[in-house]
Amino acid sequence: MTQNTPKTTPKPTLYQSISDHLLEMIRDGHFPVGSKLPTEMELCDQFGVGRHTAREAVRKLTDLGVVERRRRAGTTVVRQHPRAQFGVELETTNQLQRYLEATDLHVNKIVMDLAKMPRETALEGVPSDWFKVETYRCVPGTKRAISWTDIYLRKEYQSIAEHISTKPGGVYPLLETQCGEVVEVIEMEISASRFPPRVGRFLQYEAADPALLIIRSFRNPAGKLLEVAVSFYPPYEFRYATRLSRRDGQHKTRS
After folding, report:
1. At residue 189, does pLDDT exceed 60?
2. What φ, ψ does residue 99 adopt, rounded to 5°?
3. Residue 211 belongs to a domain with what CATH number?
4. pTM of the prediction?
5. Structure confidence at residue 156 as a pLDDT band (50, 70, 90)
6. Which residues form the HTH gntR-type domain (predicted)?
7. CB 233 within 8 A of CB 211
């Protein structure tokens, strides 16, 4: 006779336990919004742990959006409850467009003369063929940047630069409405990375913090590369899902 073994709940890690304890104190008002959390060394003394464990506990709170870390300014409580994670499921270009329309796009600056090709992606041609638009996205109604994207466009499309932050959605619809192009294929690569220093500073993360790197390449029916978007996301705030299905809709087996 088979005996069923009761399922046990995995024991939380030490840093998770500390993070949960601090989160409960924030919810109870012990650390109100605007106040400072104890320093890493103070947390080490309070909980009897090493500095790495204390740092991971604070990082977890940062990922939840309840605190923000700034260099030489300490860790500040910015909200009492964790923010909702921002997720998107992608199956078609229309779904990508709906995601782009659900967030506000802002332009940081435009770089017309590239000194060299970006190492994250292989652009076609030479640097003088392209220009870069540095952008970031915010949830509507807030000023906090939730992601960063370097958009590379061919210089023949530079007329759309002034419209990028004035139209809802992404940049590639402008290629179609303003330049007469047709985006037929969007290639996407997702990988683990770290924030470049300039991006980390802007999003208020450390340069060594992990990031979700997504590179999208936009091509017309002839295969011409029109745009490349290199995006960095906080890994615990975003969820990407895809759905794969057979083209013929049938399941075939070998006999």
Report:
1. yes
2. -65, -45
3. 3.40.1410.10
4. 0.59
5. very high
6. 12-80
7. yes
